[in-house]
């Protein structure tokens, strides 16, 4: 890979990311049912009806997995703690769950790695889904109770705490497009979820501050919204998409308002008195996490209901997900975040990576496309720093092949290959290439 530590500012952190439900093995340790378990148990939602009950068995193999991270020469580990493991019924603490994260934290620190925790990476306890999940304002407040319990146990040892991972996926992808749990396609549910997930962030910030936590922020995902043509209709459709995906959450969290292009369709469906929550939502954060993967080409579609749009397949090279490879988009969002929203606040690339149809051949996995992908996105990050964005770290998604949500175990994002029959871990060529880039002086 064509970069080294010397290309980045002193103290820049290189890391890898994972998420609890995708790797731990949710069947262990007294964790409660989540809306992902029930979504996966419903025909047609997840490839081969797979779920996270065993996943990578990280619950039992975390020491080995952390060794892999350390041996790659990485500095930091972004992981998430599971609400349904800590509170199986959404309200009662499971001591076994807290103990697991206590052991995990110690193991991260013992290796000299910096722990970057995410509090919600999507496994909502089913008991709360029964009460409307993110459509229900109360879920945001219950989230605060979980935040308090887990923070009390491990918070003071965290280098960084993010409230929510990718609120766009939690709300729009899951309640409007129906691709993720709970699999709804309803604009009223969407508007409520898009607001309540922001409120959950605000509520978490309030609780974290009350417990004296610093280094608290949020992880947002961004996708470059490219208009299919220069026609006024296509440009307007792309601007609406940009507002729904790339502005709603960051503008809510940093400025306490929502973009007008998005409100134009959502306002009639918003919960009553939503404006009263904007102060809680927009309290100061300490960092912003940026997840970035691809761009989307948007055309106006007069036959569709609001937001009157459709996606067009683009011409660029694609990953195993069918996502176009567009590193310029990462530069765009890092510089735009600094310029329009967070100024000098630290920014982290909290996820970036690609899925590939990796195969083990003679005990090795050759993934040159992934090496190129990482190099190109590292260079985009470096350029964004040169252009004024205070980017302080880069986390590859993901350390391990894992449960890729609706795609089950079919899509492989790891630097380390996992054989899901034997659970054997085998580092891919990209793992060794990254290790050698990081050790270069
Ligand atoms: C992000 C998610 C992560 C993983 C990657 C590929 O949207 O945060 O869990 O699924 O995409």
Keyphrases for this structure?
441 residues; alpha/beta; TIM Barrel; two-stranded antiparallel ribbon; 41% helix; globular; binds beta-D-fucopyranose
Structural overview:
With 441 residues, the protein is an alpha/beta fold. It has one domain: TIM Barrel, CATH 3.20.20. It has 15 helices and eleven strands. It has helices spanning 20-23, 35-40, 58-71, 83-86, 95-110, 126-129, 137-154, 167-175, 187-210, 232-255, 260-266, 278-281, 328-342, 368-386, 429-439; strands spanning 13-17, 76-80, 114-120, 160-165, 216-227, 287-300, 309-312, 347-352, 391-397, 416-418, 425-427. The strands form two sheets. Strands 1-2-3-4-5-6-8-9 form an eight-stranded parallel β-barrel, surrounded by six helices. A hairpin with a 6-residue loop joins strand 10 (416-418) and strand 11. It is globular and about 55 Å long. The two termini are 14 Å apart. Bound molecules: beta-D-fucopyranose. Beta-D-fucopyranose binds at residues 19, 22, 165-166, 169, 221, 291, 351, 397, 404-405, 413.
Tell me briefly what this model is.
The protein is of the alpha/beta class. It has helices at 20-23, 35-40, 58-71, 83-86, 95-110, 126-129, 137-154, 167-175, 187-210, 232-255, 260-266, 278-281, 328-342, 368-386, 429-439; strands at residues 13-17, 76-80, 114-120, 160-165, 216-227, 287-300, 309-312, 347-352, 391-397, 416-418, 425-427. The protein has one domain (5-439): TIM Barrel.
